[in-house]
Amino acid sequence: MREAVSATAACQKLLIASVLCVAFLTAPAAVRANLLTNGSFETPSVPAGNFTLFSPGSVLITGWTVTGPAGTDVAIVSTSFAQNGVSFQAFDGVQWVDLTGLNSNSTEGLSQAVATTVGHIYQLSYMIGNTTGGMIFGSTSTVNVSLNGVPTFHDTNSNVSPSSLNWVPFSHTFTANSASTTLLFQNADPSTDNSNGLDNVVLLDLGPGGGGSTIPEPSSLALLVLGFAGLRLASKRRGR
C-alpha cells in the first residue's frame, strides 16, 4: 500500500510539473526583454509641464545619441505639456521625444547600437505621435528608420487630432546580419511642422527564423497532460 501511495504522490508531482511546464511554454512572446535602453525616454527627467532640448552629439538621453545637422535638436517632453490648445501626453510613462526639437526642423534624430545575433529575426515596434491642432504642428508625423546606416522603414501617422497628441503603433521585423545593429530614428516632417512624437520603442529578439525555442502544438500539450493524468489514475487503481 505504501508503494502505491508513493507512486500516486510521484504522479501528482509529475502532473503538477507538467502543467507548470505547459504554462511556461505557452507564455506570450511579450515576456521577452526589450533590447533597447530607455525606449520610452523616461530619463533624464524633464520639468513637469515643460521640455528639455538636446543637441546633436549629446549622449545625455540615457542610451541614445542625438544626431543631425548643426543647429538642430530634439526634445524630451513632459506628458503634462500643453501649447496652443493642444495637450501633449506621452503614450508610455510620463515623457516622450519630439524629433522636431524647437524651430529647427531638419533630419535630426536619435540612434542606439545594440548587440545582435547574425541570422536572428528581430521585431522593432514604436509609437508615432501626431496632432493637427495648434496651427504650427502640421498635419502628419513621419519617422524614417535606418539600420546600420541603411534606410529601412518609413512610417507616417496621419490621424486627425486637433486637441491632443494621437499615438499610432508601427511594427517591423528584420534579420540581423552583424553582431551589432545601430538603429537611427530621424524626423521626416517638413520644416514648418513643429511636432513629431516618438515613444515606447521596443526591440525583441525572436530567435533564429523568428521562432526561438520550439513550442509543442496545443494538441500535443493536451495529450501530454492527459497522459500524466492517466498514469495517476492507473496508480490509484493499483493501490486499491
Protein topology:
Blueprint (H helix, E strand, L loop, with lengths): L1 H24 L25 E4 L10 E3 L6 E5 L3 E2 L2 E2 L7 E4 L10 E7 L4 E11 L10 E7 L2 E8 L8 E10 L4 E8 L9 E12 L9 H22 L1
Antiparallel strand pairs: 1-3, 2-7, 3-6, 4-5, 6-13, 7-12, 8-11, 8-13, 9-10, 9-12
Helix pairs in contact: 1-2
In short:
With 240 residues, this protein is of the alpha+beta class. It has two helices and 13 strands; from the N terminus they run H-E-E-E-E-E-E-E-E-E-E-E-E-E-H. Strands 1-3-6-13-8-11 form a six-stranded antiparallel beta sheet, with no helix packed on it. Strands 2-7-12-9-10 form a five-stranded antiparallel beta sheet, with no helix packed on it.
Task: Tell me what you see in this structure.
Helix 1 runs antiparallel to helix 2 (218-239). The protein has 240 residues and is an alpha+beta fold. Helices cover 19% and strands 35% of the residues. It folds into two domains: 2-26 and 215-239; 31-208, Jelly Rolls, CATH 2.60.120. The strands form three sheets. The protein has a six-stranded antiparallel β-sheet, with no helix packed on it. A five-stranded antiparallel β-sheet has the order 2-7-12-9-10, with no helix packed on it. Strands 4-5 form a two-stranded antiparallel sheet.
